[in-house]
Amino acid sequence: MKNIYLVGFMGSGKSTAGKLVAQRLGMEFVDIDSVIEEREGMEISRIFAEKGERYFRDREREIIREVGEKTGLVVSTGGGLGADRSNMEFMKKTGVVFWLDVPLEEILKRTEGDDTRPLLKQPLEDLKKLYEERKKIYSLAHRRITAWEKTPEEIAGEIVDGYLHRD
Hints:
This protein is an alpha/beta fold.
């Protein structure tokens, strides 16, 4: 069974939908951010503060390649992992990639007051630029799911359907 990879900006619902997809398909769910936190023994915000973003991105790259050696997984990626061209190419070779597309305005509503996401602390203009840059890579996914104004169950249903009825 090919892996299912979920990419998208922070707050797009990757983990929530991913758990439902894994449940429906009887697959194992893996959240890359959770794996990193567990292995590092600290939250992502602390990793960024103490070791820097470069260190974190290197850990993401290591772990996605480790995870990609397995099959039958539903993988929720961090927002930056899926926005890296080499990671995207790797995921496309080892599974089916779904982009959960959510407008930035909705992302900001969903993440309001969330101080665990270091990249949200930058000025709005910088965040908009980051969002637009990442969308260019996300758009290389096998499938795009419009993931706003839908319930997590509806999103999961679209992913399952897209996975089971892929070319």
